[in-house]
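Lecture 7 notes: from sequence to structure.

We start with a single chain of 137 residues. Read the sequence below before looking at the structure.
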Amino acid sequence: MLVIKHILVLCTGNSCRSIMAEALINALGKGRYEAVSAGSDPTGYVHPKFIETLKRHDINIHDLQSKSWDVFADLHFDLVITVCAAAESCPVFLGQDEKLHWSTPDPAAATGTQEDINAAFDEGFNLLKHRIESELL
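Now the structure, written as tokens:
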């Protein structure tokens, strides 16, 4: 019998990278992992470019929301993954859960042409996808 592992993905705003990782883990690890995401200071919205990026890569965006980590404060996770970049302050989820840190540049901070911004979101998507495939699957 296969046991589903529960994963919490954290960052500060929970509008882009952590939600992207949540969607990718649930899509790629279907049946093995169940992921949720949250932020220590959630923006309350999902970045529209992130939604476009997931749609371009045929990833389900159903039920994705920006939310506070308070929602999950009393729950146990098999794994907690933080996705803040090295230069950012990253939230620390207290508890005995196993922890990983996947430093990921924030695509929402990208500037330049529309192609530059799309490339930043695709880069974030591909970086997280590679980490999921190499470290979880």
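The two ends are 17 Å apart (CA to CA). Keep this in mind for problem set 3.
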